[in-house]
Amino acid sequence: MERVELLTVEHTYQIRPDMLIITPAFPVPGRSWSARTESVGVVRPDGREMEATAQISMTHLNIPDPSVPPEARWRVTLWLTDRTSEEVPVGSRILVSQEVRDAILPNNAA
Asked: Cys-Cys with 57: which of 8, 35, 40, 51 at CB 3.0–4.6 Å?
C-alpha cells in the first residue's frame, strides 16, 4: 500500500504504556468524522522505518478561556498504541494511506 505523510512529530506525550499522544492535532474535518484504528508507518529522523498502530479520534480539549472558539476545543488527535516516545522521537514522520489523509485533511485532498 502506498502511504503519504500525514504529519511530522512536534511533540509526544506518553500517557500510559498503550497511549503515546502525537502532536500536532488537526481541526475536525466535519460532522461525519468517526474514530478509527489504522496501521501507520513511522520514519524516524535517522531514516529507520517501523510499523505502528494508531488510534485516530476526536478529542475535546478543556480550555477554560471563553474566547477560544469551539473548533480549537475539538481536535482530531492521533496516538500510537504500540510504540514509545524513545521509538518515535520528535522529527519522525507519520505515514498513512491516502484515504486516511484525505479524511483528516479533506481540503488538501489530491
From this structure: 35
